[in-house]
Amino acid sequence: MSTKRRPTLRRVLDEPSSYLLWPRAALMQLAHPSIAPTEVESGAYANRGAQRWRATIDYLRLVAEADDDTLDRLVREVNRIHATVSVPEGHDGHRSRRPVFDSDGQRWAAVTWFLSMVDTYRLLISEIDDDVLDQLLADFARVGGLLQMDVSGWPADYAGLTELVAGVERGYPPRLPRSGPDAPPEQLLPGDVAASVFSAYSLPLRYVRWAPKVRLLTWGMAGPLLRGVYGIEWTDDHQARFERQARRWRRALRTCPGVVRRRNGRKGRRKAARRLREYQVRSYTEAKAHERRLAARSETG
Fold first, then answer.
1. Which helix (H) or strand (E) holds 173?
2. How many whole angstroms separate alpha carbon 46 and alpha carbon 86?
3. 265: exposed, middle or buried (C-beta count within 10 Å: 0-12, 13-18, 19+)?
């Protein structure tokens, strides 16, 4: 029996394919009417999208397999960041000063991460047996449970997850609003933030060349409903290019042994855990910013 079809949560997250989960999940979150205002206020995808991308993967990998002490540090840091998030002033129907502590919102965030994680794995690595999908979903409840999600509302199986996603998708707006040419320059709407999800501005130079391929694969996995929310035209030619790109990456990944392919994921988990231990006083995000500055100096020096 193929172990690829029966992976553990740790193995799925250690795969290189896991890096593709963030853009699609971000787009699903921005399409949620209750979450979009928070992301507009705090997202800043255009200038720190890469930081959020990396931090999300680090968080998921640590939660998948970490000791209690590391998890305690991680939860304190995430709570510290979330405590500063608010809804834009005057936004109707959202009076919570700290909306990211809302259980339903955190459940949807966890759902988008899980669905995107599974879809990227199935697209680029292997199909997953149905009973393993249910087990992965059960294990993933820990991710949301550490983010103030009421675990009693977590789907019992993958079929329940599919129903939950379909219910939320029915509440998507027909089209996400964007600022027009005559809008004030400081105006920021959900559609404006979404346009920055794929921004190369915040990416390290060595990753910029991959941005068009990531964009193609993300919109291909997004499906017609989500593409419609963002006004993305998707033709038969786009679909053919998406399928060709997926085949190329799938062949490239399959030529590499799994233990080697997942090496960077293991290293990333250990590095993230060490960073949390070493910077107990300094902010986790400040520590990462410091590391990036040092790396940039070494590249230019």
1. none
2. 19
3. buried
